[in-house]
Amino acid sequence: MLKLAVFDFDSTLMDGETIDFFAEELGIGEKVASITEEAMSGRLDFFESLQQRVALLEGLDFAVVEKISQNLPYMKGAKETIAALKAKEIKVVCFSGGFRTATGYAKEILGYDADFSNVLHEKNGKLTGLVGGDMMFSHSKGDMLVRLQNILGVSEEETLVCGDGANDLSMFAHAGTRVAFCAREILEKEANIIIKEKDLTKILEKI
Predict the structure, then answer these.
(1) What letter does residue 16 receive in the DSSP assignment?
(2) DSSP alpha helices (H): ranges in 74-139?
(3) What is the Cβ-side half-sphere exposure of residue 37, based on CA atoms within 13 angstroms?
(4) Euclidean distance between CA atoms 7 and 161, whole angstroms
(5) Given CA atoms 80, 86, 88, 92 in this order, what sign does their dihedral have?
(6) Which CATH number applies to 4-205: 3.40.50.1000, 3.30.360.10, 3.90.76.10, 3.40.720.10?
(7) What is the largest CA-CA distance in the chain?
(8) Rounded average pLDDT over 18-26
(9) What is the pLDDT of residue 42?
(10) Which residues pair with 180 in a beta bridge?
(11) Is 8 designated active site?
């Protein structure tokens, strides 16, 4: 019986990578996207890649960041899947190596119970190129998951996790149901449910 479901945000609950949308505003979309891909495939340390990418965003208007964060394309079936899980009294949480501007806003739309993500530092209305928060390292999701399980009294067997990239590996290590959603090969190898179609409701057919 599942009691806790944890979803990644970028390319899982949301169709795309939030930071890539920001980078496009500065005309550096391809450069940032290539670093993102290296990190998600496990070829580049997540902490280093996050710092590199956020540094490239220095000077971007925070108002633009907020506008983009509030107009992201959510994944097909995200809202319906979360509602179905919550109807079974399963706590639904979002872990994101991305940003609170996006996950905090999406929480009210998609309906998950809590979000843990990172915060872009801004000063005088512009990004400084610095970042901090809950999900800075490759081990952050696993670390936070164990803490949540302890607080809620939930076992690994009662936990579902869903993600697409290498920074989701650490939470896969602590969950009985491991969903690789349109994922990189490095994550599929550790999954016991693999979804190839961009439709999160497919998860409901497997659990």
Answers:
(1) S
(2) 78-87, 100-110
(3) 6
(4) 6
(5) positive
(6) 3.40.50.1000
(7) 49
(8) 94
(9) 81
(10) 163, 194
(11) yes
